[in-house]
Structures are given as C-alpha cells and as structure tokens.
Amino acid sequence: MRLLSVLLVAPLVIACNDEPTDPPPPATNTITAASNNQFLPPNAPIRTGGTVTWEFQSVAHSVIFDVKAGAPDNIQEPLQNTTEERTFETAGTYRYICGVHPTMFGFINVIAP
C-alpha cells in the first residue's frame, strides 16, 4: 500500500516542480488604426519573422517607427480604408507613432520563440 501511495503522489510532486511556460508569441498580429486616433491594440506581440498588419479605417493615418536597428520601413503615406503589412526579423520592442496624429502611438514586441 505504501508503494502505491508513493507511485500516485510522485507524478504530482514532479508536475508541481515544472516551470510554467508562456505560450509562444503569434506569427501574425493585426492592429487597427482607428478613427478615434488610437492604435488597437496599443501593444502587439509577434515572433521574430512574424508579420503585423495595420488596418486603416476611414481616417487617414501613417506608421512611423523610432529609429532603431531592425525596424521595418515606415508607412509614410497617410492611408485610409486599406491594409498594410510589415515583417519583423529582429527581436526587440519597436515604438511607432502616427505621422498625422503624433500623440497616437503603439509598440510591437518582437520575441524570439
């Protein structure tokens, strides 16, 4: 009986000692450049080599990244009612603003899986 108790309890003890793992970051993410002058979500995770799509609504916006190694090309031209994609090859946090509405900003968190 004692052996049976040890055999039943041992897997529970071992499982409790496993470190929790975060789910891997997504390969794609979508950000809405909303008509209320917000990027939604304001903070988007992506894995290295992943693609972010900006959905521009009825108000024109652009996407201008802070100068940083690994940042993709800006979306210079204000766009509306369309989408635009950028791929992120280098891990790091990339801040961006709207060139039309400079108080509108967001972050892309590129995470190596």
Outline of the structure:
With 113 residues, the chain is mainly beta. Helix content is 14%, strand content 44%.
Walk me through the structure.
The protein has 113 residues and is mainly beta. It has one domain (22-111): Sandwich (Immunoglobulin-like), CATH 2.60.40. It has one helix at 2-17; strands spanning 28-33, 39-40, 43-47, 50-56, 61-65, 75-79, 82-88, 92-97, 105-111. A five-stranded mixed β-sheet has the order 3-9-8-5-6, with no helix packed on it. A four-stranded mixed β-sheet has the order 2-1-4-7, with no helix packed on it. It starts with a helix and ends with a strand.
State the main characteristics:
single chain, 113 residues, mainly beta, Immunoglobulin-like, 5-stranded mixed sheet, 4-stranded mixed sheet, 9 strands, 14% helix, globular
Can you tell me the CATH architecture? Sandwich
CATH superfamily grouping: Cupredoxins -  blue copper proteins
**Overall structural domain count:** 1
Task: Point out poorly predicted stretches.
Answer: 6-15
**Secondary-structure element string:** HEEEEEEEEE
CATH topology: Immunoglobulin-like
Structural class: mainly beta
Shape: globular
The proportion of residues in beta strands is 35-45%
Q: What's the overall average pLDDT, rounded? A: 88
How much helicity do the residues have?
10-25%
First-last Cα distance: 45 Å
The major β-sheet equals: 5 strands, mixed
Rg from Cα: 21 Å
Would you state the CATH class? Mainly Beta
How many beta-strand runs?
9
Count of DSSP-assigned helices:
1
Widest sheet, order of strands: 3-9-8-5-6
